[in-house]
Specification:
single chain; about 250 residues; alpha/beta; Glycerol-3-phosphate (1)-acyltransferase; globular
């Protein structure tokens, strides 16, 4: 019975996601035209795009999402946001945060009809993993976005882990923050791994949480400090994630 219920909920949730994207596409196109001059950073059209994820999570009875921590007072203060990566559902969970961020995402997603068009309209950044030139161009684009007072978000693990262990963090996000002289805003995510298991289309039960940690300033740091900064942020996120998991186990969530 549980398996059948999860399958029905999965079909319903994916249907809502697909229908929402088709409805959102012309609306986002219109908003982009209306705000082309007043909002060159595409803040509002991107924020509208993230509400698709909020809607899908809201209509799915299998998921319970939570936000904790202190959100930034000024949504237009740019940060380089970094998070651990448990599942595709991380994106839907983080989309509940009340400010807009541009996502550094693998180029394959931009080639998917409708989804890719929406991501381009929203101003997200494509990167061809394993292609150094593409990675360099993506970082240039991220710098341009930050100058428009819009945050960017990067998963420094690069991909989802096949186990419960976090993967090593790559340097890109931390190099970007130091070069731009902007703070890093760490996020800790817990509970999304069961919401959508890797290589499976069916959704599962999940009580998931995203916690906003204290920003870490990078002013005065040089490229020689990238490794230490990277490890410090990873330790912060891992510690918070472990605490969140302990609480979820105690309450049975």
């Amino acid at each position: 019975m549980n398996a059948a219920w999860e399958t029905l909920c999965s079909i319903w949730s994916w249907f809502v996601l697909g229908a929402s994207m088709l409805i959102w596409l012309p609306l986002m196109g219109l908003l982009r035209l209306l705000t082309r001059r007043s909002d060159p950073g595409r803040y509002w059209v991107g924020y509208m795009f993230r509400q698709i994820g909020v809607l899908m999570a809201t209509v799915n009875p299998l998921w319970q999402f939570r936000i904790s921590g202190k959100t930034p007072m000024d949504p237009r203060r740019p940060y380089v946001v970094v998070s651990n990566h448990e599942s595709f559902v991380d994106i839907l969970l983080i989309s509940h945060l009340p400010w807009e961020m541009k996502w550094l995402s693998k180029a394959e997603l931009f080639r998917i009809p409708v989804l890719g068009w929406l991501m381009r309209l929203a101003g997200d950044v494509a990167v061809d993993r394993g292609n150094p030139r593409s990675a360099a161009e993506a970082m240039v684009r991220c710098k341009e976005i930050l100058k428009e007072k819009v945050s960017v978000i990067i998963f420094p693990e690069g991909t989802r882990s096949e186990t419960d262990e976090m993967l090593p963090f790559k340097d890109g996000a931390f190099r970007l923050a130091i070069d731009a002289g902007l703070p890093i805003l760490p996020l800790a995510v817990s509970g999304t791994a069961t919401a959508l298991r890797k290589h499976d289309w069916r959704l599962g039960r999940s009580v998931a949480e995203v916690r906003v940690l204290e920003p870490v300033e990078t002013k005065g740091l040089a490229r020689a400090d990238i490794g230490a900064l990277r490890d410090r942020i990873r330790d912060m996120i891992a510690r918070e994630r472990d605490q969140m998991r302990d609480i979820q186990r105690r309450i049975g969530g």
